[in-house]
Amino acid sequence: MKRQIRILGIDDAPFTFHEKYTTIIGVVMRGGEYIECVLRNQVTIDGTEATMICKQMIQNSRYRQQLKAVMIDGACLGGFNVVDIDDLSESTHLPVITITRDKPDQKKIKHALQKNFKDWKERWSLLQKGPLQMIPTQHNPMYIKCTGVSLEEAKEIINISTIRGVIPEPIRVAHLIASGITRGESYGKA
């Protein structure tokens, strides 16, 4: 796989549950070294349109034809606005990889969904798609789900786009931009 493949990393901006929407930022990078462009959109906090918004972000990008993979910071944007990674991959013909630093606590997630959403079964079903894989790193492990690509290819894409630490640059940069435009200065770990 070429080191300069174009990867879209997507992350949401920090928000409070008193807000209706939150910004999502997409960053197209060549590998983990060169930023090609920054994309912006928004999702409803705890809404249901994150998959559609991600599709629009990809389809409306002038780099659409050159993209080779999509990475999302976690399986949800804007709280529990779940991204259907299978649908996103199938409709865009791109591999999709979700990445998290911490292993999701499935029991807590299910409880929160049951407590707060009438459609919790649909959201839970989307979150259960595909196996969660632990990927060892030099630091702490990361956890991924991938579709449209083999686990080995996903690891290669992650390796190509990670400069230091654990988080691939497209997601790390999207996180920095999203938190910077919301808070005035970026902070925290992607």
Would you write up a description of this structure?
- This protein starts with 5 loop residues before the first strand and ends in a 7-residue tail after the last helix.
- Helices cover 34% and strands 28% of the residues.
- The protein is an alpha+beta fold and 190 residues long.
- It has a single domain (6-102, 132-183), classed as 2-Layer Sandwich (archaeoglobus fulgidus dsm 4304 fold), CATH 3.30.2170.10.
How many strand elements?
9
Task: Report the CATH superfamily.
Answer: archaeoglobus fulgidus dsm 4304 superfamily
For the largest beta sheet, what order do the strands appear in spatially? 3-2-1-4-7-9-8
Overall average pLDDT: 94
Radius of gyration: 15 Å
Per CATH, the class reads: Alpha Beta
Multimeric state of these chains? single chain
Could you say what the CATH topology is called? archaeoglobus fulgidus dsm 4304 fold
Euclidean distance between termini CA atoms: 25 Å
Report the major sheet: 7 strands, mixed
How much of the sequence is in beta strands?
25-35%
Global geometry: globular
- SS-based structural class? alpha+beta
Order of helices and strands, N to C? EEEHEEEHEHHEEHH
Sequence stretches where pLDDT stays below 50 over 5 or more residues = none
Q: What's the helix count?
A: 6
Q: What is the helical fraction, as a range of percent?
A: 25-40%
CATH architecture name: 2-Layer Sandwich
Please give a quick description of this structure.
The protein is an alpha+beta fold. The chain contains six helices and nine strands, in the order βββαβββαβααββαα. A hairpin with an 8-residue loop joins strand 1 (6-12) and strand 2.
